[in-house]
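Lab notebook: predicted structure, single chain.

Context: the supervisor wants predicted structures on file for every construct in the current expression panel, including those that have not yet been purified. This is the next one on the list. No modifications to the sequence; it matches the entry in the shared construct table.
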Amino acid sequence: MPSNVSHLRLPGDREHPRTADVSALDPVCEVVESGGGLIELVRAAASGLQASVVLIDRTRTVLAVAARSPAEEASLMKQGADVQAVELRVGDEVVGHLRLRPREAPPAPALVRAVAALVALEVERVRGPDRASREATGAFVRALLGRELTGREEIVAAAGELSIDLSSGGMVVVVRAHHVGQAEDDWRDRLSAVADRSARATAPGSAVVLQPGDERPEAQVVVLVPHTDEEELGLRVAEAVVRELDSNLAGLRISAGISRRTADPADLHRAGNEALLAANVADGDPERRILVFEATGAYRLLLSAMSDDPAELRQFFAETLEPVIGYDDQYETDLVQTLETYLEADGNVAGTAQRLFTHRHTVRYRLDRVRELSGHDVTSSDGREKLSLGLKAMRVLGIPSPRGPASERGAEAGRVPRGAKDRG
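Prediction complete. Output recorded below exactly as produced.
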């Protein structure tokens, strides 16, 4: 969103000595009083301000346009030099923006301010019920997946109050988004709006809930898809959401996990854990962005541990891989990447060195550091098994792997020469 938001001046400023024509507010007030809606309101605002106007909400979705021609509309959307941008605020919250392009002389600032205040209040009034519905839906999904609701009839009744039909069960899709680099303040709101739009278009009747990340630059969207006979619907929802996020938001690293279908709504909490596990595994694999639970392989064996006793799983991770990850984070080394590649190469040092484009002595040195830090020797069968499970525990718990030099764009996770991206 362009940052050149105009600062409105009060009547009496030297640049605008004339008094606002308050009669221009009449058509705006009439629309508000009659409940004419945002489209009619923007048309009335355009008439009163003698300007072409576009109304954009906080997620950068265009709500209404009043322009004399497609060229005028294009100028408003691009926010050319002659377009004024005005924040719409209710209290301390920005609820949207008005962009206006005067047809003749610029309207008086007091008039613009009054119109903007009326439009802001109407935007807030219109989105109030929708926001309340989203909050209720979010509370229901959290209670369902957190096993606060366990009885079939109880779940079906609570879902029915929100117009969600779970009488035949359903499935869960989890979409994880990490913002890479500088993040705009509203990126989570935009993420939620895009995910909601694309998921509902693909699977009508779905519930879409945003779960913001904690202190990390990430967010998570949960899509509860009512039961369907279409086997691939969950996959289509995930693909649609990922595709739309790629098209509409820049700088995101996205992964998605899809649960199995369940016919019993009382089992949807387990479907939520399946989707979360698949998303966690996909999040740690640069070659797979979307993963169905059935394709998680041996990770499926850890589902019960993740669901029923995550503390035990975290303890196992702490006793195996946590010190190695801490070292990689601190010194930007590639010990975890080397360990993963070594295990993928069936314990072959030469094969690992070839895949990482490094020397065998370097691989052996890194594996020695893994042994010193973790206390497990990867060259022994017992050490290999424990470290392999430690890696799986890391994925299942959703703990991000270190992203040092080997994870830079162009390095292909260390599988191409580091210098290649500099020579290209």
